[in-house]
């Protein structure tokens, strides 16, 4: 059996806690979009209840094979209609709490997958 080391993305999540994550050495306290290809963008949302379809439409333009949606402190789902732009481009979306999304992102990015994480970091 041949072993190969995992690939480390430019943006590894190195720690997380309530209302924050570490991206490499940087502590981030606001929601963000993070891509294994080096993408790092602010995501203008602070509470799950404030999300709209407009928060998800731009994710379809990122051309990832999979979007991981970290829905905050617990697993919550958005209305399926909000995901139409992703479905039209055949981009999968997996929903999980933000801490689980961080762990899953690191695994998939380490495997070299074209993954994007949309992480809701709730401040209230």
Automatic annotation (TrEMBL):
<dbReference type="InterPro" id="IPR036748">
    <property type="entry name" value="MTH938-like_sf"/>
</dbReference>
<protein>
    <submittedName>
        <fullName>Uncharacterized conserved protein, contains Mth938-like domain</fullName>
    </submittedName>
</protein>
<dbReference type="InterPro" id="IPR007523">
    <property type="entry name" value="NDUFAF3/AAMDC"/>
</dbReference>
<dbReference type="Pfam" id="PF04430">
    <property type="entry name" value="DUF498"/>
</dbReference>
């Amino acid at each position: 059996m041949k072993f190969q080391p995992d690939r480390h993305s430019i943006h590894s999540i190195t720690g997380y806690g309530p209302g924050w994550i570490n991206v490499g050495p940087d502590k981030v306290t606001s929601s963000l979009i993070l891509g294994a290809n080096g993408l790092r963008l602010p995501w203008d949302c602070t509470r799950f209840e404030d999300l709209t379809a407009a928060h998800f439409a731009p994710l379809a333009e990122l051309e990832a094979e999979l979007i991981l949606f970290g829905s905050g402190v617990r697993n919550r789902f958005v209305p399926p209609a909000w995901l139409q732009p992703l479905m039209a481009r055949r981009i999968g979306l997996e929903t999980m709490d933000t801490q689980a999304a961080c762990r899953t992102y690191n695994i998939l990015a380490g495997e070299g997958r074209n993954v994007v994480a949309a992480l809701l970091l709730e401040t209230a």
